[in-house]
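User: Please predict the structure of the protein below. I'd like the answer in structure-token form so I can feed it into my own downstream comparison script.

Assistant: Understood. Taking the following sequence of 563 residues as input:
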Amino acid sequence: MTSRREVLKLGAVGAALTGVLASGSDPTPTTTEPISRSQLAPQNTPVPFRGVFRRPPELVPFQRGFDGGDPRRPFERYALTQKLGQARILPGLSTTLAGYTGIFPGPTIRATQGTRIEVRIRNAFPAAGLVQPGAFSTSTHLHGSASLPQYDGYANDITVTGFFKNYHYPNRQTARTLWYHDHKHHITAQNVYSGLAGFYPLSDRFERAQLPQGEFDVPLMLSDALFQADGSLGYSDNSQKGLWGDVILVNGVPWPTMKVKPRIYRFRVLDASISRSYRPTLSNGEPVYIVGTDAGIVPVVQAVSSWRLGTAERTEILIDFRKYKPGQTVDLRNLSNKNNIDFANTNKIMRFQVVADSGSGAGSISSVPSRLDNGGSPTASRGGLDTMSLTPQMATVKRQLRFERENGQWSINGVIWDDIERSGFTKLFGNPQPFAVEQWTITNQSGGWFHPVHIHLVDAKIIARNTNGGKPFAWELGPKDVFYAGENESITTLMQFDAIPQEAGRYMIHCHNLVHEDHDMMVQYAVGDLRTNNPITADPPKRDTLPANAFPPVYGPMFPAGT
């Protein structure tokens, strides 16, 4: 096991390295100084709104069927090969990325409630990383999924180059925007920054009946980056505080322009930056309508002029373009938040350009709804409760999570992940029992930083804040799994641990500023018996004996570029 001191040394070296690679080759890092802004020549610098919007391609399963031949138990199988690839992000230059199937964002996997999905993750990376010199090992986390511990992307459940792991996802939850990304301890930030992230929307019949679908259901992955003069990724973690790039990407395109029809669109907005938070707003002051949060649709639709979005948070919004005429434009801007590092164009995200209506309009809706029905808990028959129905009286235990920085060390309740490792992975923050309801209060006591706090496995309801008059903000009135703990803020939440004893085991809690996470701001809890479903040994990765091209990706029909 690599010691914390060795990892910190690797991180310091990695901050000064940039990989210059050809797809499939071994990296040949060149030593440079860490950069705080892109080093691009004027002709290679992207100009806001000149880029053409694109959606990530949607992956087709390589197999479909029914467990035991039972039509009530459908399954799908997918394969994602982690490998290097080339992207044309910048004018006149290529950028080497580390992606699922070699692209960024990774292919979208669209899941349906009740259809089990198995994803084979193959590590076909070279020996060393793009922005860190250590081994290019990975651990894949399907963020927001109620997966078993051995399929949850536990930070020490590592797949090394030349190995694969089959991840099993039950998809029993209500509709929501999930996403998959790397979670390998100490290099999560570098791996995600290099390109390891993709969408995994989960649908159900209630969501499909009430919200836009197809052409009008659009994923927006926000991220930021720094670039060296040759187009390669630059990296600096600002003394373990975070990375803030000067180029904003939407689905991997700098400040793109999207053509939209005069209809109501649904946008699944994900902050996939490793540190930056956003405060999106429309340039004309018109509202957007919040219809979904991290863990599902909201009971009451909220009109907001802007909203705060921390790393890994997902907000589903409606924008009504019906009042606009062809040729009109409106920009999605970024008002930013405290303790980001901002640059000349980080106040811009993307542009919408309205075009003439065409086609059947299939998938659109005729009006913005005021209320939404999620159908209740899909596990009600076994004791599961709808998250938004939880009340403080149901809580059997109250717990406190303090996010702190002392003597230059990120910690939670004074504990770091190194303590977990030294305990043989037995040290726990808490041990809730299956189906218990608990009240957890998250407090940011670290001074001049914000922390997007992620609790694996569960959906939670925010019931109080020490800001905003003690109430949750309008954009967080739905089920959540990431909690923006701003400077000196505290958040009180309710959650149910909806897992039968056989599904129990250990799960992580951490800051989703991935630089903070990699510098040990992470602890764990266990539902029921911590020995159940050991996340490292229950289903370990296996050597990959198949040829590199064994699972060529097949993508579904694409929408035209720019739409």
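That's the full token string. The chain has three domains: 4-29+49-204, 214-354, 380-527.
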